[in-house]
Protein 1
Amino acid sequence: MQLQVADSILVQNYISGDEKSLEILINKHNQRLTSFIYSKVQDRAITEDIFQDTFIKVIKTLKRGAYNEEGKFLPWVMRIAHNLIIDHFRRNKRMPKFQGSDDFNIFSVLGDDKLDAERQIIKDQIDNDLGLLIEELPDDQKEVLVMRIYKDMSFKEISENTGVSINTALGRMRYALINLRKIIEKNNIVLTN
Amino acid sequence: MEQIYPRHQNKCKLVKVKPESVQLLLQYSKALNIVKHKELTFESNLN
């Protein structure tokens, strides 16, 4: 009885503009309401959401002055929470959530082919290192390799641009790769992703 | 004898929402302003 009287006084104070009373009310019923919601939905995040939605409704109703259940604050709040829990399950029924099980996980079929942050950093480092190694090559070989790999030109286009025959361009490309491998092996450089 | 007691006796904590959630509600309450005019009710959020 004492608890109900205290609640109604707090509600009255809150309606009169005392924000502190709301804090007391929330903290007072926090555990009971959270346990109630959690016992139904069995999920912490959803519990938090429903708890917030419940009190948003409470706040709106109180501020509008539409609250008239004297002395029965907690049962009223519980009823709001109960209705929101039902809404939550209705919504989920319409839009079922797919969760992977041990036998089958959807993410083993659907993949995100983008690199994650760590792999992206590693890739950038490798690209950077490789750029430095290419700088070590003789100019004629470097020119062919850059045109072929970075500018995606065909050997015909390379021969036209550099003024050498296709066979010479091919040979330079071959030597460029051989020399790159040599530099990598000589310096024990590891380029992997 | 000691073997029969479970190790973590207080693993089950009392369930409460996070303090951030409570804070959000209090701030929402402070920001919400409801004005009534005749039959109409206006809600405004002063954020």
Note: The helical segments of chain B are 19-31.
Protein 2
Amino acid sequence: MNSDALLGGFADTPVQSARAFRAALDALSRPGTIRVVEGATPPAPLSTAAGVLVLTLCDGTTPVHLAGAHDCPALRQWITFHTSAPLVDAAQATFAIGGWDALQPVARFASGTPDYPDRSATLIIEMPGLAAAGMRLSGPGIQSKARLSLPDVTAFKANRARFPLGFDCFLTAGSQLAGLPRASRVEDI
Amino acid sequence: MTDQAYNFAYLDEQTKRMIRRAILKGVAVPGYQVPFASREMPMPYGWGTGGVQVTAACLVPEDRLKVIDQGADDTTNAVSIRKFFQRTAGVAVTEATTAASIIQTRHRIPETPLHEGQILVYQVPIPEPLRFLEPRETETRKMHELEEYGLMHVKLYEDIARHGTIATSYAYPVKVEGRYVMDPSPIPKFDNPKLSDSPALQLFGAGREQRIYALPPYTQVVSLDFDDHPFDPSKAAHDCDLCGAAASYLDEVIIDDQGGRMFVCSDTDFCRGRREAGHVGALGVPLAEGGM
């Protein structure tokens, strides 16, 4: 094992993961909000924000899928050491991490069952950048309208159309973090 | 000061991760009850173990916590939960609604409007609104799946047939974003309009029943009713006897053996704020004179 895999975790897990969760909760409950998180220094290509989410939410009970360039030995070792999450295929994943293109087709991820819609995947989408501009969002958590630089429209519209089934997303770029729950309506305006 | 014998906010990290994932799924599907592996807490079921676990999973050291029980900051349940988190998380506490970042509540929504960034955590005894109509979890789950809520309307209709009006006065069922029927916890129906379009995030925790659900800010919440019997958020036809507030929810307090009674705001912080601002009710005396 590469000794770098041992580094880059939280120094003070209870407090740092609490702050990270509050940022993630705020981002998901108010889509369009961009929050900055810190505390993790994962190996490339994982961003700081995605690393923080992994440390905060993943453990041995949450299978993780690494897509595309994110499926590299350094990252596999880092996630295994810090969270002991099993690394699995897309269909079994509770969390899936990767760039938007690498995550395609997103229909393969768990979207819950009609009686248990919570048994669905959470996608952590690595973005080149995040801005409160672009696609228009509406729905729960949004007072009137919000905007977020999403990588796609059609896929998120299709995801919303299946409500209450569907996957939920965090979008990460550097230390920035945004959330897109399945309840959000996305329009390309 | 945090009690060093405990992890931050009492719960272990594995448990907090599990609760946090449930909260996030609850936020993603507003009104849907997410099952979670509720832990035994150092207090009995019925004392807010669900709310305490949700609060513990959300707290950060910078938080300012307010705990209310039926609107009051100074009752046993509120005092003991507040002390619990002072001791295990070292967070600051307050009784002022506007100063709090997290408010854990039993059976009330504060009168003072909440603001963006606040989290309201409800203690929930029975999270399933259909439970008293259908005792089987397998059946109620199917009813939610199929949006089969006719039984709830039958129950409200039978209220009207028997009493001439919808007699349900607390835990009044609501529909969230046109999809899930939800139990708002035993808040008086007077508080139901405040559920909808709230700037604050609302989280619901049921410890014994092992369910967490959520209302993100600005979520549409509609109290169930009929066209010819519209929802009526009623309250006692009185003003507060201490502060004179006409539009706050009131407790009726028996004050002697002759049937004497007074009506006072159930929200103690709201009532004190009004009295400090110089409002005086019918039986009250100005605060400056040291009156009660």
Note: The longest helix of chain B spans residues 13-28.
